[in-house]
Amino acid sequence: MEYILAITGASGIAYGIHILKNLPHRRILIISEGAMEVARYEMKGVSRKRISSYADATYGEKDFSAPVASGSHIFDGFILAPASMNTVAKIASGISDNLVTRVASIALKERRKFILVFREMPLSQIHLRNLLTLAEAGVYVLPATPGFYHGSTDMDGLLSFVTSRVLDLLGVENKLIKRWGD
């Protein structure tokens, strides 16, 4: 099993890192320059090296020589977390001008599991149309909106809620949160 996680320049870098840490099996990371800029503001002291330490392989957004840039590369799921609305718009329009959007294009054309976690608010009509376009194409559109019924009171618990939902969509058993009714 192999999962590809892309982190773009939206707020919420902690979501991407938390998901990456909890993915089982082989983990491939694509991290954009915008993501690193945002990470410097949101997560003091975090570095590309530290984020990459949770992955089995890491590629930059400009690395079209990466094996994952080919449709012949088999992977079990693609997670884009957090997804910037710029990246969402490109994918919804069929633009694959970097490794993130290229892998998204592959996930769509090869009908691989594709989970998009966005953290934007409020949403404009254009954002909503782009998200709807992707949902209609088979993408799981998951807002980075933690639930509170599992009783978490700290940041890790809130991140775990969203990560658990991503893992659920991938079909990966996890015990990150207390389930409703448990």
How would you describe this structure to a colleague?
By secondary structure, this protein is α/β, with parallel strands linked by helices. It has one domain (2-170): Flavin prenyltransferase-like (Rossmann fold), CATH 3.40.50. It contains seven helices and six strands. The chain has helices at 13-22, 33-42, 48-52, 85-92, 99-109, 125-136, 155-170, and strands at residues 2-7, 26-31, 57-60, 77-83, 113-118, 140-143. It has a six-stranded parallel beta sheet, with helices on both faces. α6 links the parallel β5 and β6. α4 (85-92) packs across α6 (125-136). It is globular. The two termini are 29 Å apart.
Could you provide a short overview of the structure?
The chain has 182 residues and is α/β, with parallel strands linked by helices. The protein contains 7 helices and 6 strands.
Low-confidence stretches: none
Overall CATH architecture? 3-Layer(aba) Sandwich
In helices, the fraction of residues equals: 25-40%
Q: Compute the CA-based radius of gyration.
A: 15 Å
Please identify the oligomeric state.
Answer: single chain
Topology summary:
Layout: E1 2-7, H1 13-22, E2 26-31, H2 33-42, H3 48-52, E3 57-60, E4 77-83, H4 85-92, H5 99-109, E5 113-118, H6 125-136, E6 140-143, H7 155-170
Parallel strand pairs: 1-2, 1-4, 2-3, 4-5, 5-6
Write a concise keyword list for the protein shown above.
182 residues, alpha/beta, Rossmann fold, six-stranded parallel sheet, 40% helix, globular
